[in-house]
Amino acid sequence: MDDEEALQKTLGEFLQNQGYTPLSALDGDAGFLLAKEKKPDLILLDLIMPKKNGFDVLKLLKNNSETKDIPVIVLTNLAEVADIDKALELGATTYLVKGDHALIDILQKIKATLGDE
Amino acid sequence: MVMGIVIIVTSILTYSIGTRYNSDPESVVLVVLLMTAFLLILSFIITSSFERLAEANRLKSEFVSIVSHQIRSPLTNLKWIVELLMSGILGKIEGKQGEYFKILKENTERMQELVNELLTVSRIEATKLVFKREPFALEKIAGDLVEEFKPIAKSSNIQLEFTAEKNLPKVFADPFQILQVMENLLYNAIRYTAAAFNDGKDKNNGKITVRIFKKRNSVVCEITDNGIGIPKDDKKFIFQKFFRAGNVRRYQAGGSGLGLYICKSIIEKSNGRIGFSSKENSGSTFWFSLPIAK
Question: What CATH number does residue B153 fall under?
């Protein structure tokens, strides 16, 4: 879930090439509905998004019986300690600052979270 | 200070008027009242101008922070696209394409470094930089960091060594922030040593040593290199924001001029000290000390 379409496209292309099937949503509302419907193995969640921000989506996901067990990796450009603490408190598995990570780092985190290593 | 001088001068003036005209107490009272009113107005003007200055500084930091965040997204996209293209997933990179992609990647990284540093500076200036102080072993994070940097140093033909005294006490600071300081100092050491030895017969003579030792009530981290050093006239400006030494610009070594300012701010907020000694064309030693955990 990310409102940056170009960024989603790049990451999606890369993950697809690594054997994953990425689904995408450009806002929080659409993202939550998609997660409920498709029940993915893992969610990459941006924090600044229209309609519902990432924190609200995270709350919804963790309070919903169908989605609460899906691991969520927060992937954002917000790097304030308060945001990191809040996201982890709400149940995010990992918090990654987009700009600080290469595509390969994100792939490794995904693999580690899914136990694909 | 200005206000202090004004108060002293006014008090002396009031005292001399009071002693000189003690036969006319009404005039003395009037003078004292006038002086008090003058001081009140003056202090109001000074305080409000300081408040305006603080507000302007806060707005500036907020502006830098917002702009930096906005720049981060397109920059991340650019970085990931370059990585995707360079990985060869979308097609083989041939001949000069690789060379130019490498330049594109390096420049994207430079922009990213600048944005990150601007964000850190804006946090420091808005006093929003969060410090989570705890006892930790400085030699442990320094040793790990040196291991992480060894391939980078090796790729620039630089020998990177690490020594730490045994049984060092733990320091009391924020390990995450101290890691930023060490990364900055180590990057500088590599960058400016590589600049000194990047060609010619001495190509493999670059050397950097990281040393951790105890000194009185603190633990010191010292990073010594035999790089380009700092020109004598530039030394006093080295911790200033955006300052870059003359020889650094000559060698065209990267860097934003914010790193050392950030290091100084973090170390001082950690109740530590930071300093350096350097000689142009011979090398530099940067050090910082941190208080021992009680």
Answer: 3.30.565.10
Phi–psi pair at A71, nearest 5 degrees: -65, 140
Asked if A10's CB is within 8 angstroms of B84's CB, the reply is yes
Given its phi and psi angles, is residue B115 left (phi above 0), alpha (psi -120 to 50 degrees) or beta? alpha
Query: What pairs with residue A94 in β-bridges?
Result: A73
To test the contact with chain A by mutation, choose from B61, B66, B70, B73 the residue with the greatest count of A C-beta atoms within 10 A, namely B73
- C-alpha B242/C-alpha B240 separation (Å) is 6
Q: Please state the domain count of chain A.
A: 1
Backbone angles phi, psi at B128, to 5 degrees: -105, 0
Nearest to B83 among A7, A82, A103 (CB): A103
- Nearest-by-CA chain B residue for A15: B84
**Threshold 0.90, pTM exceeds:** no
| pLDDT tens-digit map of A17-66 | 999 999 999 999 999 999 999 999 999 999 988 889 999 999 999 999 99
Which residue range is the domain that position B117 belongs to?
1-129
ipTM over 0.85: yes
CA distance B219 to chain A (A): 27
Q: Is residue A113 part of a domain?
A: no
Q: Are residues B140 and B284 in the same domain?
A: yes
Residue-wise pLDDT tens digits, B82-111: 999 998 888 888 888 888 988 888 888 888
Q: Is residue A114 part of a domain?
A: no
Q: B154 and B13: one domain? A: no
